[in-house]
Write a structure and sequence with these properties.
Strand content: 5-15%
Number of strands: 8
Number of helices: 10
Oligomer: single chain
Distance between the termini: 29 Å
Helix content: 25-40%
Structural class: alpha/beta
Shape: globular
């Protein structure tokens, strides 16, 4: 996903053929041995990148429903700290709080498909930000990242919901402004914005970042500078976050009613 967002080539392999130079996951394994850093662990049991790749990914690339992906959580955090750094993404206007608002496939679920997706009540976001304020102090700016409402890069099943998506996003802005009257509320969804910029905003939110029922944002929110709230998954989607939340105190799960057609 990161390679795609940055338009970089990516290959995957757990092993090398004779004379082959390390690339993809094999290159990451080499870095794991060459560069000192935190060792991935779960409850005191240590794992190297090679062990995770060989023993837990069973020879295939980990995906969003791989239940042991939390074993790589320390590496994910370190990677996203770098990918969201000024050396990679130059953004000067980070918000205190950042919400990733997944609307396209959430609205698609209202027709009886995609049972693990949906739309949250506005009160969910307000309550999570209020909780964060108790720990982190007053929130002076709130950002929302979501897919563009127009442009050439809309996903096929987003195209039928752009008007409703815009209506929901603007209504959420009004709800947030009522609850946080002194905060500046901003919508970040220009068609010119990149995927990596949206993810960097989640990582660099100093007080709180919120990720809903989406496979797009939990990795970045795991590395968030402030509190990272992630929707507690149902079914197999993002199931790895359940374990990851046990080992990373600022990575927290939340439950809330989800509006969909199920």
């Amino acid at each position: 996903m990161v390679a795609y967002a940055m338009n970089k080539p990516f290959t995957f392999s757990c092993g090398l053929r004779e004379g082959e130079e390390p690339r993809g996951a094999a290159y990451l394994m080499k870095l794991n041995t060459d560069i000192p850093g935190p060792v991935t662990n779960r409850n005191g049991e240590e794992f190297t990148a090679e062990q995770v790749c060989r023993d837990y990914c069973a020879g295939v690339w980990c995906n969003w429903n791989f239940h042991n992906l939390d074993l790589a959580s320390d590496a994910i955090i370190e990677d996203w700290k770098y990918l969201a750094s000024p050396a990679v993404v130059s953004i000067e206007d980070y918000d205190d709080a950042l919400i990733h608002l997944r609307l396209g496939d959430g609205l698609y679920s209202t027709v009886g498909a995609n049972e693990s997706k949906g739309v949250f009540p506005h009160a969910t976001y307000v309550n999570l930000l209020k909780q964060a304020e108790k720990e982190k102090g007053r929130i002076s700016s709130i950002g929302i990242v979501t897919a563009p409402f127009k442009g050439d890069h809309l996903r096929p099943f987003d195209k039928g919901y752009t008007s409703l998506s815009e209506e929901i996003a603007l209504d959420l802005i009004r709800a947030l402004q009522e609850s946080f009257p002194k905060a500046k509320i901003r919508l970040h969804n220009s068609p010119e914005s990149t995927i990596i910029e949206s993810l960097a905003r989640l990582v660099n939110a100093p007080k709180v970042a919120v990720c809903g029922c989406s496979t797009f944002c939990p990795y970045a929110v795991l590395a968030a500078k402030g509190i990272g709230y992630v929707y507690k998954p149902i079914g197999s989607q993002n199931i790895w976050v359940r374990n990851a939340a046990m080992w990373h105190p600022n990575f927290r799960l939340f439950e809330t009613p989800m509006l969909n057609g199920m």
